[in-house]
């Protein structure tokens, strides 16, 4: 049985302030939790409903297991319908972003993406297409937000997320910088080469003025109909698909 202080502590991790303070984030659902077993992430505790215990694989001895009732899961879950399992996972220390690690590949760069669902979907999409790294500006939504984590469906375990001051980072960068802009060249006519950073902007404002200055190859997804814009996660999927196609 969970104590009031335990419930209060877990619920506090729904907020960025306390995730940062305790270096822990929440993952819900056994399918998503399993994805972290084979990753570099360290699992702190798994809370489970006894009725679904048989779904747990054999776990390392250093992972804490805690049986809880459905009513307790309801209290600590960020979901409307809890999925029987909730894990607390350590947030890794900030990874150092080495420019050499970005050579000979394409990397998504997100400038001011704010919606947790969009962020999670982009991470999941990158994983599907085999992209290993994503660079986020400092004003992007936090990737450990419960809604973001849930939207990744476990892909967060496989995609390295880096945070960077984009103007400063791009100043040091030596590989081509492609940016999604309405007046850019069609992505289907672009000479992509073998490497590059592909920048996608904020849902409402697009790419910031400071970052636009660093783009040397503006590109766009050609519009056929009358819609004003594309959702940023949809755009990311189209870019990823085209980049994989031209590389192969």
Automatic annotation (TrEMBL):
Residues annotated as domain RNA 2-O ribose methyltransferase substrate binding: 26-95
InterPro entries: Alpha/beta_knot_MTases, MRM3-like_sub_bind, Ribosomal_eL30-like_sf, rRNA_Methyltransferase, SpoU_MeTrfase, SpoU_subst-bd, tRNA_m1G_MTases_N
Name of one Pfam family that matches: SpoU_methylase
GO cellular component terms, semicolon-separated: cytoplasm
Key word Transferase present: yes
Keywords on record: Methyltransferase, Transferase
GO MF annotation, one: RNA binding
One BP annotation, GO: methylation
Superkingdom in the source lineage: Bacteria
The keyword Glycoprotein appears for this protein: no
PANTHER family: RRNA METHYLTRANSFERASE 3, RRNA METHYLTRANSFERASE 3, MITOCHONDRIAL
Family: Belongs to the class IV-like SAM-binding methyltransferase superfamily. RNA methyltransferase TrmH family.
Protein known as: RNA methyltransferase
Organism: Pedobacter kyonggii
């Amino acid at each position: 049985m969970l104590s009031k202080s335990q419930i209060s502590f877990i619920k506090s991790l729904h907020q960025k302030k306390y995730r940062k303070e305790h270096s822990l984030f929440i993952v819900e659902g056994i399918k998503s939790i399993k994805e972290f077993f084979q990753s570099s992430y360290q699992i702190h505790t798994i809370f489970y409903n006894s009725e679904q215990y048989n779904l747990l694989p054999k776990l390392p001895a250093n992972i804490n297991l805690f049986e809880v009732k459905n009513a307790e899961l309801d209290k600590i879950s960020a979901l409307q319908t809890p999925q029987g399992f909730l894990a607390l996972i350590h947030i890794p220390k900030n990874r150092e972003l080495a420019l050499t690690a970005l050579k000979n590949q394409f990397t998504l760069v997100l400038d001011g993406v704010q919606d947790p669902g969009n962020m999670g979907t982009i991470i999941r999409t990158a994983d599907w297409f085999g992209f290993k790294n994503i660079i986020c500006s400092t004003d992007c939504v936090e990737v450990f937000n419960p809604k973001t984590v849930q939207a990744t469906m476990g892909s967060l375990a496989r995609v390295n997320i880096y945070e960077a001051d984009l103007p400063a980072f791009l100043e040091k960068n030596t590989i081509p910088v492609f940016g999604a802009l309405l007046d850019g060249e069609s992505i289907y006519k672009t000479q992509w080469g073998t490497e590059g950073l592909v920048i996608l902007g904020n849902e409402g404002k697009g790419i910031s003025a400071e970052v636009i200055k660093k783009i040397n190859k503006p590109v766009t997804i050609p519009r056929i109909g009358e819609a004003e814009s594309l959702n940023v996660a949809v755009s990311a999927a189209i870019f990823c698909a085209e980049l994989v196609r031209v590389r192969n």
